[in-house]
Prior knowledge:
Layout: H1 3-22, E1 32-39, H2 41-50, E2 55-57, E3 69-75, H3 77-84, E4 90-95, E5 98-103, H4 104-109, E6 119-127, E7 138-141, E8 147-149, E9 155-160, E10 165-169, E11 176-179, E12 185-190, E13 200-202, E14 208-210, E15 218-221, E16 244-247, E17 259-262, E18 275-278, E19 281-283, H5 285-289, E20 296-302, H6 305-308, E21 319-324, E22 334-346, H7 355-369, H8 378-385, H9 398-402, E23 407-419, E24 423-435, H10 441-445, E25 453-466, E26 471-487, H11 491-500, E27 521-522, H12 535-540, E28 542-560, E29 568-587, E30 592-600, E31 606-613, E32 622-645, E33 648-663, H13 671-674, E34 677-690, E35 694-705, E36 714-725, E37 739-753, E38 766-776, E39 782-791, E40 800-813, E41 817-834, E42 850-870, E43 875-892, E44 913-914, E45 917-920, H14 924-929, E46 943-945, H15 948-951, E47 966-967, E48 976-986, E49 989-999, E50 1002-1004, H16 1021-1026, E51 1058-1060, E52 1063-1075, E53 1078-1090, E54 1111-1122
Parallel strand pairs: 2-5, 6-12, 18-21, 27-30
Antiparallel strand pairs: 1-3, 4-5, 6-9, 7-8, 7-10, 10-11, 13-14, 15-20, 16-17, 18-19, 20-21, 22-23, 22-54, 23-24, 24-25, 25-26, 26-28, 28-29, 29-32, 30-31, 32-33, 33-34, 34-35, 35-36, 36-37, 37-40, 38-39, 40-41, 41-42, 42-43, 43-48, 44-47, 45-46, 48-49, 49-52, 50-51, 52-53, 53-54
Helix pairs in contact: 7-8
Amino acid sequence: MHFSDSILRYAVLLICFLPMALHAHSAQGKRIILKGQSITMQQAIQLIEENSQYTFFFKSGVITNDEKKDYDCEGDINEVLKKVFSNSGIDYVIKNNEIILKSAKSDETQQPKPGAKKSEIVGVVIDANTGESIIGASVQIKGAATGVITNIDGKFTIMASPSDVIIISYVGYTPKEIKIGSHKVLSIELTEDAKQLEEVVVTAYGTGQKKASMVGSVEAIKPAELKVPSTNLSTAFAGRLAGVVAVQRSGQPGADGANFWIRGVSTMNGVTDPLIILDGIQVSSSDLNNLDPEIIDSFSILKDATATAMYGTRGANGVMIVTTKSGMNLDKPIINFRMEGQISQPTSTPKFVDGATYMELFNEAVNNDNSGDVLYSNERIAGTRAGLDPYIYPNVNWYNELFKDVSYSEKFNFNIRGGGKRVDYFSSISINHESGMLKNRSKDFFSYNNNIDVMRYNFQNNINAKLSNSSKLSLRLNVQLRNMTTPNQGVGAIFSNAMNTSPVEFPVYFPDDGETPYIKWGATERVNADYQTNPVAQAATGYNKSFESTVIAALEFNQKLDFLTEGLSFKALASFKNWSSSTNARAGKWNRFALTGYEEDGNGGYTYTTSRIGDEFQTDLTATNSTSGDRRFYLEGMLNYSRTFDEHDINAMFIYSQDEYVNNVPGNGNFIGSLPKRKQGVAARASYAYAGKYMAEVNVGYNGSENFAKGHRFGLFPSVAVGYNISEENFFKPLKNTISKLKLRASWGLVGNDQISDARFLYMSQINLSGKGFTTGVNQNVTYSGPVYQRYANEDITWEVGEKINFGVDLQLFRSLDLTFDIFRENRRDIFQEKQTVPTYMGTASTKVYGNLAAMRNQGFELAASYNKQFNKDWFVSFKGTFTYAHNEITKYDESPKYPWQSKVGASANMNAIYIADGLFIDSEDIAHHQQQLGSTIVPGDIKYVNVSRDWYGYDDNLTDTDDWVWAKYPSVPEIVYGFGPSIKWKNLDFSFFFQGVAKTSFMVKDMHPFGDNSLRNVLSWIADERWSPDNQNTNATYPRLSRKTNANNTKLSTYWQRNGAFLKLKNAEIGYTHKNMRIYISGSNLLTFAPFKLWDPEQGGGSGLSYPTQRVFNIGFQMTINNK
């Protein structure tokens, strides 16, 4: 897709969408019906308010004669008001959705004095601390009904005379009065009112809690702070959210989301991911990644038991609450338009040796083994190095043939936000196009495109309707549509083929001979190689087209029950999510040819003789269709009580919930897969705070899951927390200029996890009716089929339970530096595990037995720091930093290790079992002194391993074998994640950057050994440069000797192949300029990486480096806001 084509498509959608968006405010002339018998004027006004979007404002005493009368009128607002206020002595002024009433007499008496001429005054209202514009601030002339509201830029225009005084006010700020005098332009700074300004954070079940009174560990952040360069939200979590451990393993469009955990990993099996709740319904991480940042109002990360216990069996791994934006009561809607263009390139690309070097290394491997394989001749090596005819002397860089250096993407978003007193709305539409880094070789030979191409269409519509002064109905609808093209062989296979194919055995294809009706793809019949896969042919012949749709809908009803008791309310929520996918796979076959001869054509070129390898295939593409999908239905009812008695704040909540998940396409014969997964539970919370100083909270969840047998399905998950806000004490007042806030928190509780295995109904036995029943006969060689137990029932299986403890400190210094520090520990017990210690005489040699057998401990600490300072009207500086450390270790495991150092107890999850390497063998004498090693035949240049049992623990054992492996020092999931960076604003220019890093993590380099298994696998440049060889007998070489055989000794997981996975990245940088209601910006992500490992981006993890690399992204964007200015 060309960028200009995208613009045209976006423009057409904008034209279609804009009338719908603007229709929300086309009701100015809406007809109003007012009918009432024997009602007062104030009752008539209330009827008009309830049946329209208008709000009345008037002072007491304006309505002096409020006798009851009959009203029967119909028309637009002006026609109705004329009839209502006829002969009443009341005048009215209509301003947008507001109707201001005043006495006709007072209007005469309050006329401005002669000479007090009114003029236009313009101004802007900003936060004195941050310098940010304040939207919706009230600007009113003192003693008059005249007033306006600031727009999205904090600006206003008002008519006033020099003698007038204006009052500027906004919730959470101290009001300010200013006399107009000779001012024509005003810049007004409002300061926070500490008593009013209490940030509300969304917590469990979407309820809001004042941050000042919270005792749980909750991290809240706005999407704008994440600086997301694309729609992929999860890649921005690492380093910006304290307590979140995240790594991005791939840069493939449509599959480039990060894996993330809250406070690390706390279990070995089953689900380790956090629970993600979007507007009340559980969603997947892929649903989260497909959301547009523009639609999200806030993220809340619930970390400790106080925050998550109410979710019971779903909350053990932490909870992420995502809320989308709602409408606002505005005179006119706020319309926002954003467009971005993006250029991506790999953070690193693998480098292979040239063809001549490849053949020399192959010959070296043959000689190292004395294998007797046919060597490449010196003539062929020389011809290849000289770059002679590419069909006779092929020298193919398969990676360069398949992949390009740059790919392009575009993004468009249009959203509108507004509403009135009765109804408000937020609507958004976005289109995102991403392309991959595959060269479109299909287009070179055929008429289709098989490069990765992702087109996403996202829609969000939120509507809140105030049914009465005490009831509200809300509808939130999210629709995600995705069209995706991928190569038929799969992206991973293409990278693998580039690695596994020789550069010198055949060209990409042979010239067209005018007789063969299809492409003559290159292949080889070399001994021990059969024919190798031609990576270009494999990639070019076929593609997959898939379409996915996700619909997430939530209907919520809120009712105040103050008529029963003040502060009581009820909420009901019904939500539905449906995901469906269909794929059309088009696969083709390719005809393989090998060069069998050539001769000069007399014109300085050659004619080539080729022969087909294998069968002749038709090249037409076949088609295979497949579908998949699932749906989820969720119901929730909540009774909430919130009341303040003098200095006593009391809150209580009771919730009932039920959840059902169904696989829409379980497959033929999959009875278990067709059954719905159901959960049910109740939860309660009670909290108390006195004078903002002393706080206590109790939570309990009582939840059930059909995953377990009767008697084990329901469990109780309590938690308790206390807090002490020391800075509110009288004795602390002398310190408040330095220590503005100081709060201590502590919590304890139990949480659960019912997703302990992919298998279901583990309390039932699993029997294969057609299994290998028994054997008989003299030689036990007669087998009869029959029923065989594959898994024994265990009715005691239940969920994992985590006991969480948290201690926290919230500190603010000099009213500008905020620090939050938490120490946490979780003991997870009853972890699901296959039993390892059942003796075979029990008859379970081939039958699995499971139970809640294992346990783990996860502990650490986290620190978050933020600094915000407005130095003057032009300069504003902020800084944010986080540090998270989370270490886990297994404390109980059903096992019978031969040696204590091989026990899983004490090791961490996500660790490899490895041998300790001790360099390379020098010569035959070195080998003789080392005894036998791993049952392999050892020669110089092979890896030498430490005899751990003898050298470390003193056992009388001269063999280096399976007794000598140990657990790796660090896991593949980082134990340390951190991030830091500033944001600077000077006048209309803003600049920010953010560094993010990880530490205490490792991975294994593997699956890149050339020539092994008698293959003709390609050779990475670093192997050629750093290998041991007969001419370079360096025992500290980073690659052992080359070999044509399967060298089991040299491919064992060991410290020789272990690499440090730590890194520090310049994760994001952005510079922008704002002019009035427009902003242009340039940003980049993954710009720089500093790491001890240099071969590829260490964030990708282990392997050969031959996978879709993470991307360095450059972004240019334009944003424009149209509002009620």
